[in-house]
Design brief:
Blueprint (H helix, E strand, L loop, with lengths): L6 H11 L2 H8 L6 H8 L21 E3 L2 E3 L3 E3 L12 H12 L4 E2 L7 H6 L6 E4 L5 H13 L4 E5 L9 H6 L9 H8 L2 H8 L22 H8 L6 H11 L3 E6 L2 H9 L4 E4 L13 H12 L4 E5 L5 H10 L3 E4 L1 H32 L32
Parallel strand pairs: 3-10, 4-5, 5-6, 6-7, 7-8, 8-9, 9-10
Antiparallel strand pairs: 1-2
């Protein structure tokens, strides 16, 4: 088997080991997937400035995200159904992140519960919150995250209405999977995955079953989740959540300057420039193309992070150079998890760290905290606008 040297290599191996319905879930975008593709390809438009004869010794990627020291300015994104990429996936990914020294973010729609992850880790992790119509359930989720010692709450703002992902519908995605001939065949051709799943009791949404009203078995779960995402979510809810939580608050899903200003006004500690990995509004601009505009609008008032399209350490470097203080990886760590469990996630972090370190050095910088726009050959997104600019998915 060839060595894994890149995130693309890890993706190829994950596709061989994870049943199609779950691999496609991680690897899909909404509708035509144009925004999903733009998230990746727009990084290629940013060119680095090579420097020579500069002291490259004693380099460091160490930084901070919302006041927390990190080994590099990278966090694992909150991703749903992570425990379907690999048995006990959230626990394994959290352990890998903890050992590496970067934050792990647990999704509301995780397979392993808040309490499961807390019981198998030693340091605080972050929790991501979806707002449901059942406010009592949301209040309890926040309280559970506090009780587990979570050090930051990520509030996702862009999933009031769920975007359609054709692959999930065609695959008949569910957790646990259905036992139709198609699904049985997909699982039977992935024996390593099946053995792992047989060895765990975690097969459904651990934060929901047994905690939400009238959700005590799997038959009622799918209808509950379809009905519970709240289309009336507003900035008043953000204020209520901030008060209930009382700790570090990160707002995820900002892709517009006006929304960024509202996020800064809310008193949140950070915002994430994000289009939900191209899984919501297809035809929206890429995250990286909107980063400069949002930084110009609020960069002096709130910490600005970014997710979407990161596939290498060079992508991380480019985002940091444009001004992002924290970068989130979702699909890359899911590929690593599907390909090799905890070791696969660790290897993904090592690949990104090595690429980031070497590229930073070749741009003439020793410290990631010293990286800024001067390592770039201009800014291809400086003229981006909503009326026919140069970037995004155009």
């Amino acid at each position: 088997m060839p060595p894994i040297l890149t995130i693309s290599d890890m993706k190829t191996r994950a596709e061989r080991r994870v049943p199609k319905m779950f691999f496609d879930y991680a690897d899909s975008g909404a509708w035509t997937e144009s925004t999903y593709r733009a998230n990746e390809t727009d990084f290629g438009r940013i060119k680095l400035r090579q420097r020579v004869l500069v002291d490259m010794t004693d380099r460091s990627l160490a930084s901070e995200m919302v006041g927390q020291k990190v080994a590099m300015p990278v966090a694992l994104s909150p991703t749903g159904l992570t425990g379907m990429q690999h048995a006990d996936g959230e626990i394994l990914a959290a352990q890998a992140a903890e050992e590496f020294g970067v934050p792990f973010s647990l999704s509301t729609m995780s397979i392993c519960s808040i309490e499961d992850v807390a019981a198998h880790t030693k340091k605080p992790f972050w929790f991501q919150l979806y707002v449901m119509k059942d406010r009592d359930f949301i209040g309890n989720l926040i309280d559970r995250a506090k009780a587990a010692g979570c050090s930051a709450l990520i509030l996702t703002l862009d999933l009031q209405i769920i975007g359609q992902r054709h692959k999930d519908l065609r695959n008949g995605l569910s957790a646990p999977p259905k036992f139709t001939p198609k699904h049985i065949w997909q699982m039977a051709t992935r024996p390593r995955w099946c053995l792992g799943m047989l060895g765990t009791r975690r097969h459904s949404f651990g934060n929901i079953v047994g905690h939400a009203k009238n959700v005590s078995d799997l038959s009622s779960l799918s209808s509950w989740t379809a009905e519970q995402f709240d289309p009336q979510l507003s900035w008043k809810d953000v204020e209520w959540i901030k008060q209930r939580w009382g700790g570090k608050l990160i707002l995820k899903g900002i892709l517009d300057e006006d929304d960024a200003r509202a996020a800064a006004d809310s008193g949140a500690d950070a915002l994430i420039v994000s289009n939900h990995g191209g899984r919501q509004l297809d035809g929206a601009p890429s995250s990286i193309s909107m980063l400069p505009r949002i930084l110009e609008a609020v960069g002096d008032r709130i910490e600005v992070h970014l997710d979407g399209g990161i596939r290498s350490g060079q992508d991380v470097l480019k985002a940091v150079a444009l001004g992002a203080k924290g970068i989130y990886i979702g699909r890359p760590f899911l590929y690593g998890l599907g390909a090799g469990g905890k070791d696969g996630v660790r290897q993904v972090l090592e690949i990104i760290a090595k690429e980031l370190d070497v590229s930073m050095a070749l741009c003439g910088k020793r410290l990631i905290t010293d990286v800024d726009h001067r390592i770039l050959m201009g800014n291809p997104f400086s003229l981006v606008d909503h009326g026919g600019g140069t970037g995004g998915a155009a």
